[in-house]
Specification:
alpha+beta; 5-stranded antiparallel β-sheet; 3 helices
Length: 123
Amino acid sequence: MRSIDLHAEQDTLCRRIHEFAKLEAGWNGDDSVAPNEAVIAEACKIVRELPNNAQLPHVSPSADGEIGLSWLSGNKRLEALIQPEGYLVLVRALDHQLTPVAEINLRERSSSPLLEEVAALYR
């Protein structure tokens, strides 16, 4: 039953992510732009590939056309930022102490390091 619910939740979150494309230029200041289709596609791909034990992330657009994904588990937090230039930046936080984890060129590598970090967050 969880997998059916999970797929429905993933679909709902991906629809929300696709809504970010409708943001107008200047939506959050003069120079702000909406995330492009590549950023949106990568965010949805990550959402659909998450480990079954993981919570779905909080998602938000940035004024620079990025999409941020955040996971919380107790006093631990994981942040991922998908950038329009094709990079995925990962930051881990424990008790509010930030630690850079990785900067991944998505044109050369998959997002699997993020998925491993998300799985570890919920162990």
